User: Fold this.
Amino acid sequence: MKIRLIDIAHGRSGDKGDAANIGIIAYDDKGYEIIKKHLTEEKVKEYFTGICFGDVKRWEMPNIRALNFLLNNTLGGGGTVSLKHDAQGKTLAAALLRMEINLDK
Amino acid sequence: MKDKIRIASGQGFWGDLIEAPYLQVTKGNIDYLVMDYLAEVTMSILQKQKNKNPNAGFAKDIPPLMKRILPFCVEKNIKVITNGGGVNPEACANEIFAVAKELGITKLKIAVILGDDIRTQIDDLISKGHPLKNMETGESIEGVKDKLLSANVYFGAFPIVEALKQGADIVVTGRTTDTGLTLAPMIYEFGWNEKNFDLLAAGTVAGHILECGAQASGGNFLGDWQSVENFAEIGFPIAEAYPDGTFVIIKHENLGGKVSFETVAEQLVYEIGDPKNYITPDCVADFTSIKLEDLGNNRVKVYDIKGFEDTEFYKVSCSYSDGFSAVGSLTYSWPQALTKAKAADKILRKRMENLNLKFDEIRTEFVGYNSCHGPLVKDVDEDSINELMMRVAVRSSDFNSVERFGKEIAPLILTGPPAVTGFAGGRPKPSEVVAYWPALLSKKTVTPVVKIMELK
Assistant:
């Protein structure tokens, strides 16, 4: 069965220099198990091909059912150096929530 | 000792909702109003203003704001803490005094926190063995040293605590951490020990939740945003803090917005790195220890926070001039809006190449199509695109190239693909690129100065 991440989680993203931070929060414990299993560093890195040019780091925050990601080399230099329309990565959490997850895998 | 205090967020950044601090002091009871004005590049802008005018260099929004809120702050004994002093907290205090006089206020004590500006001490610090290497890339500061526009140490809560102990009604700081603004009144009111790192972490987390204004109370909420009531009169968050480090995030009942597990959780994950190591000058907070309990009625309890000893370093934020950039745009309508916009981009690039213009980067995005999610966007049937905006941005160390780019946008209307509009407001002008240089500096090298100023 396929689901969209946005159906089980929400989140927020922003900038840390040239890195983007994306926090993804599951609505319930079951959702947290799903995002923990499926949103690996490798999978997020692959998903953001063409946007994230550095490594992806992931940390778990089980108390609030959240995963925090740092995507290095993502914002075109960051700050006022970046020429991107979304120079602060504000819409990247939404981009990740658009991901489809195959629960059977 | 008070059994609880209410600390209200008034501004999440310079440019935030101007009505917010007014509503915080008038629509309910609070003890402290905290306002964050400083983003990373703000200091360089303020430094430029001060270079031109020795009485400038702080957040100009503050004096007119104080004119509106001071009478309420005096009447209700609300203390104001802000880092909007920028690179000139004393000038900011003087303008607040001028406003107070106009209002007929006769007694007012403002503390300014100084000593964070190390711009003139860089060579000295380097010679004494503090290399100020870029903490993200490890690069030596030598290459940018002569281009520095600003250099400031981030102070934490304790200089503000000292100011409150000396009876300040208003505390105006230079570069202070956003979290320190909120933590300070808790330390002061509850007499927290400077080595009780769990408590310092709790106040730091409260500061993190308040520091972006309404982002904790329903603004920019990516969950069920339509459940947020009355965005037009959104209530900014308030931390109702208790001596044991527990606090409850609330908002004024008669204002809009939403405080829930989800809205607070979204702010907790905002702009953090390793959640176990949230480093401030005051402590290292462990964000994985945070527990949230949604109490209903727009109240969320935050508790059980753990922290660790602060590091031996201050973070330093430097900015330096790094070339020029400009952004131009044109709007293409149906039919074939995307194909035409892509063709126009190609024409523009060819013309700039023919002119031998030199750029470090040229970036083209199509607003309405891919400017947010880039290569992740789904293919669309071009006939369904009503219109889109071609947005071209350039960056170069060569001012003339950037300036000439600005002159190549409008001609595309009469010399390129059809059904194009949206060129208004003149040619895009080059603006200075301000790059950011984060570094670490031993805490032993800098001492914050608390200066009390009184209305005369």
About this structure: The longest helix of chain B spans residues 337-354. The first strand of chain B starts at residue 5 and ends at 11. Chain B touches chain A through 50 residues (CB under 8 Å).
